[in-house]
Amino acid sequence: QAQLAESGGGSVQAGGSLTLSCVGSVSGYPMGWFRQAPGKEREFVAAIHGSGRRTKYADSVTGRFTISRDDSKNTLYLQMNSLKTEDTAVYYCEALTSYGLAEPLGSWGQGTQVTVAS
Q1: Distance CA 4, CA 13 (A)
Q2: Strand partners, 65
Q3: What is the pLDDT of residues 11-51, one digit of tens each?
Q4: Taken in order 83, 86, 91, 95, is the CA torsion positive or negative?
Q5: C-alpha–C-alpha distance, residues 31 and 48, integer Å
Q6: Residue 111: which of 20, 27, 25 has the closest Cα?
Q7: Residue 7 in contact with residue 21, Cβ under 8 Å?
Q8: Res. 108 pLDDT band, cuts 50 70 90
Q9: Over the chain, what is the mean pLDDT?
Q10: If 0-12 CB within 10 Å is exposed, 13-18 middle and 19+ buried, where does residue 18 land?
Q11: For 99, which of 13, 49, 53, 74 could close a Cys bridge (C-beta 3.0–4.6 Å)?
Q12: Residue 94 and residue 104 in contact, taking contact as beta carbons nearer than 8 Å
């Protein structure tokens, strides 16, 4: 799996929105977004099937975040709405061993920082 490059992070007020992008060899792979907040372990956020027709989310982001993909652009997206301070973290994209398990392959990139202010 080639290196993936995340972008689109930034600072935003609570209630705001951001869209993250992940460019690389994503076409056809099950893909996921993960995040790591300061002092906490990396956690699952969202996953999308290689077909793009199935998605799933962590309970904490369901209804607020949307994962999508455009394989023609080799790009994975994470639309984040109604952001909360607890969404503050470094966000990473990664290919998954399978959509069902949502286990990351583990070749992490640099990530992109999202900071949500109250």
Answers
A1: 27
A2: 80
A3: 999 999 999 999 999 999 999 999 999 999 999 999 999 99
A4: negative
A5: 5
A6: 20
A7: yes
A8: confident
A9: 95
A10: buried
A11: 49
A12: yes
